[in-house]
Amino acid sequence: MIELTNIRKGFPGNSRAIDNLSFTVPDGKIVGFLGPNGAGKSTTIKMITGILPIDEGSITLNGYNINHHPIEAKKLFGYVPDQPDMFLRLRGIEYLNFIGDIYEVPEQLRQQRIEKLTKQFQIDKSLHDYILNYSHGMRQKIIISGVLLHEPAIWILDEPLTGLDPKSAYVLKDLMRQHADKGNTVFFSSHGLEVVEQICDVVAIINNGELLFYGDMDQLHKEYQTDQSLENVFLELTNDE
Ligand SMILES: Nc1ncnc2c1ncn2[C@@H]1O[C@H](COP(=O)(O)OP(=O)(O)OP(=O)(O)O)[C@@H](O)[C@H]1O
């Protein structure tokens, strides 16, 4: 479970990038995080993962405060950033073994998982190539495989489906469902409203750093006329004019 309580974050020139944001990502549900460009999704995710400091408020992951207990909190989650251009000088297999070492995944289990994941995502043939030579989608898939390799309880995915081919997107959506169904936490941001409507149990919509809606699809339809699609509600909520 991820709990955000009264989070504030400012940048030079934007003192309220995140403004008193509170919500919970419960176990056993897929929670979609929506908002227009610049709404504050990545900033929020970077605070949850301890990459950006929080100005005010607190964030806990399964009870561990990311500021006060960063190591314990960081052991619990896997994070897929919106930009997968990392570790470019490593070969795919070197990256996965590096992750396996950091998270102490036993050798035999590691081999099994690497084989299964990279076959599912169809990057098994490229594991001995440098990540530098991977396409955007392949880079994303190697990062996702690294996250899934150590089977963290909490998945935090920043636009994970952008740029994935249909088969890989299907595989990832299926894995997200399975992970949530086992009682784990799945939190992901997306611009794909159809995907969110298709797989999320709960949606959180923000704009200008503020939470505009949090609830499941039933609540959304009750609050905003039963026949409205998520797209219409999103456009209505995030219309600044
Ligand atoms: N390092 C930074 N320095 C200054 N301002 C920043 C920085 N990072 C984010 N911001 C600002 O904070 C606000 C939220 O940005 P953020 O990247 O979190 O949005 P987002 O919802 O992830 O957008 P997108 O959908 O385009 O990825 C924006 O106004 C952005 O300009």
UniProtKB/TrEMBL annotation:
Gene3D superfamilies membership: P-loop containing nucleotide triphosphate hydrolases
SMART domains: AAA
SUPFAM superfamilies (UniProt xref): P-loop containing nucleoside triphosphate hydrolases
Ranges where the ABC transporter domain occurs: 2-233
Record has Cell division as a keyword: no
Pfam families tied to this protein: ABC_tran
Keyword entries, A-Z: ATP-binding, Nucleotide-binding, Transport
InterPro entries the UniProt entry points to: AAA+_ATPase, ABC_transporter-like_ATP-bd, ABC_transporter-like_CS, ABC_Transporter_VariousFunc, P-loop_NTPase
A GO molecular-function annotation: ATP binding
PANTHER family listed in its UniProt record: ABC TRANSPORTER ATP-BINDING PROTEIN ALBC-RELATED
Protein name: ABC-type transporter ATP-binding protein EcsA
Species name: Virgibacillus massiliensis
Lineage per the UniProt record: Bacteria, Bacillati, Bacillota, Bacilli, Bacillales
GN (gene name): ecsA_3
